[in-house]
Amino acid sequence: NGQRAGLAHFNSGSNHSLIRVEMRDGKKYIGDQEITVDSILLKTIVDLDRIATYCYSTDGGETYTDIGVRYRLVSANYRGDLIGIFTYNNTVTSATQPLNGFVDIEYFRYSYSRQASSNADRALPRDVVVQSDRQFSLINCRESVTLWLAPADTTVFIANDTMTRAASLTSINAPKTPGLYYLYEVRDGAVVSRSAASVTVADKIETPGQTVIEMEDYVWAVIQTHVGGSVWVNTGATMSGKFLDNTIVGDVYYLGKFDLTALTDITIHAGHADGGVQYVFYTGMTAGPRTPYIYTGGEQKYQNQRDKYTAAVTGGVGIATANCPSTGGWNNFTALTATMNESVTGEQELFMRIEGSGNYGGNLDRVVLTFVVK
């Protein structure tokens, strides 16, 4: 009992993460999941953004279970990410006799690919339904590329009713002609990549449509989009992933540019142990030049020096407010419906600011914008 064994990523400093099997009361566990087999495979997958995914298999690698953790790896000095296999036991039966368990390691396998996920997939990570000739947001892919929205199997790109070119890395207009489209990265007239996700362009959307903004995307996109006071991203071993962790009152997020004429409802999924904060949605905000703020102390550290920015944010009209009471825990996410304060029309940029008298803004999972276009 008490023996722990697993696979770890670390940077020879204080930052580390791991997946482990632990013996408790004569049974083996990964987290709260009991493991009933004697042999188990542990695996981590790291993408080109240095985001690690952790999973395990109890059937010899036929299927893997994702434990839900997403962890950004960081380097220490000139060293890159280090990988380790470990086992230890801190349980002591007497002052001098610790329990000594063991683990058998059959093999360790490391493989890699030089192929990054494509810029088209990064910019359009999921399917979108949009009305024709309307602008919608893209995820900034962080490098200067040319993006086109066009039908499947397009090889020649010319702006017309069935093709549009992105004027920026954060938004693109839907074509005028209804149909099924894909996002292309084009360089020197040739296709570099095409998104797996599609864009369905409709002449009219008669039923409610929703735009879901997953706040987990802002864990990395914060470099481009965060214009508020600070965001703390927990890089400790307990980070659960799939949400934006430890936000601060005063943070401002740029959510995108939308046709707010059809906006009928805003819902934010948040967790807060104390409550007393408000998520206020604004139009017309202006952000000054962003400058990096480098934080070096404490148990929690920014994922890298670019992850926190400060900027002067001015102006803005508050159009909706979602009050956040205590949800019973930081990770107990509750859907909070915003009260619409102002009637707005036309295409406008939408921001969200965390307000309140406390310090912590809570953990944020997603923002859901509901539109009805007739």
Written description of the protein model:
- The protein is mainly beta.
- It has two helices and 27 strands.
- The chain has helices at residues 119-123, 218-225, and strands at 3-10, 16-24, 27-30, 33-35, 41-46, 51-57, 65-72, 82-89, 128-131, 135-137, 146-150, 164-165, 171-173, 179-187, 190-202, 209-214, 244-248, 252-259, 263-271, 277-287, 291-292, 309-310, 313-324, 334-337, 339-340, 347-356, 360-371.
- A five-stranded antiparallel sheet has the order 4-3-2-1-8, with no helix packed on it. Strands 9-15-14-11-12 form a five-stranded mixed sheet.
- The longest helix has 8 residues, at 218-225.
- It is globular, with a radius of gyration of 23 Å.
- The termini are far apart.
- Mean pLDDT is 76; it is low at 217-241 and 292-309.
